[in-house]
Amino acid sequence: MKPRISLGKISYINASPVYYGLDNDLLPDWLTMVPDVPSALNHQIITDQIEISPISAAFYAMNHDKLLLLPDLSISCHGNVLSVLCASNYALDDLDQKTVMFSQESASAASFLKMIFSQRQVYPDFKVGPVGDIHQIPSGVDAVMVIGDTALTQPWKERYVHCFDLGGIWYEMTGLPFVFAVWVVRESFAKKYPEQVGQVVDLLHASKKQGYAHIDEVILAGAQKLKLSHSLIRRYYDLLICDLDPLKIKAMKIFFKSLYEQKILDTPAKIRFF
Predict the structure, then answer these.
(1) What's the pTM value of the predicted model, to 2 decimals?
(2) Same domain as 67, residue 102
């Protein structure tokens, strides 16, 4: 008898191409989708509430001994990405001792931003707080890190002098793509039910293939959901990449190594696949 499997689903539009097929008739009755923000999915997979999920790449690094990566699935970019921003009233090097606020929604972006500051020997006062609505951000906040749909929909340039795209910053540093999210399975579950996990991997790949075959529908749905222009959402999906090729794996290894060197990770992270 097949086990019921809970599959996490990022609630931002960035994962829409991967889930297109599952949203349109590919979903079997033994697979339940669980939509949520990345930080909630991070928590749910590590507390055994879901079996398979996209999670922040940095969160994988923090829990690499319990999780296995699924092949050829990620949310990545090769340069600017538009949806992972540091909006600031100062240049990055001038944010020493200044207040930088971010939400708890993404471990990767927050870890990456801390790593950038650490490498530059800049030490802001980090705070976790409400960054989902530009009008709710306290007046004393000098910079905010925003991700996902919020980064796309709020008028950040009206309040802040600079909008630094973290995907672009990483590319300038390394010449490599940046991997924000990966799909993983709990290793204990994969060992018990390898055949079923393999079926979910095949479904995700088939779903993603359908998504890119129907990318115009994905773009239209994203534009309608966020009430943004069709051209902006098309540009956004042109910048997003959802595979996990050798170059992205190399970039992940460099990112994880940097996180360890900057003492953001307690132990070196190993790349392990299902």
Answers:
(1) 0.92
(2) no
